[in-house]
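Deliverable D4.2, example record:
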Amino acid sequence: MLRIIEPYILTFIPIFVAVDVIGSIPLFISLVEHASKEQRHKIIIDSVTIATVVAIGFMFIGKWVLWLLGITISDFQIAGGVLLFVIAVRLLLPGAVKIISVEGQDKDVGVFPLGTPLITGPAVLTTTLMMLDSFGIWPTFISLVINMFIVWLALAKADYIMKIMGANGTRAFAKIMYILLAAIAVMMVRRGIQGI
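Output generated by the structure prediction step:
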């Protein structure tokens, strides 16, 4: 039984870390604070839909794009690992936050910046492709869909989560996620070097 669910657990955790939904909640709240309940609901649906479509689309065409460019999976693992590590280190530095500049409260805020790059950004795309290569299509696809469901649930209950965890608790949780992201990045680089 454990052997059957192991690939799903091993794909779920890195994608969950890369998505970092808890770390995104403060920015989400700041972007929708003046929106009505109906507008907020539409923004959540738009952001999760766009994030899911982009991630799944890249999951299916990512390898083809790499092949077209003459990039091997090992090359992508090393480059992706370095990129993830840089992102993680930047976010771990004192005072670092997920900064996305938005001019005004745009009606498409669910598409940009929430859907992409906040929910599905370089970290998620890179991690998804690595998990696809390591564990196959079904564990990666199912883990991705479950993670997007968690994103939807977390954004829908964002105010409640912030009340429970507080601003400091949310920041602390996000920092732990960034450390895990850095460790996953090192693992990717190691696997890429071994592959070469």
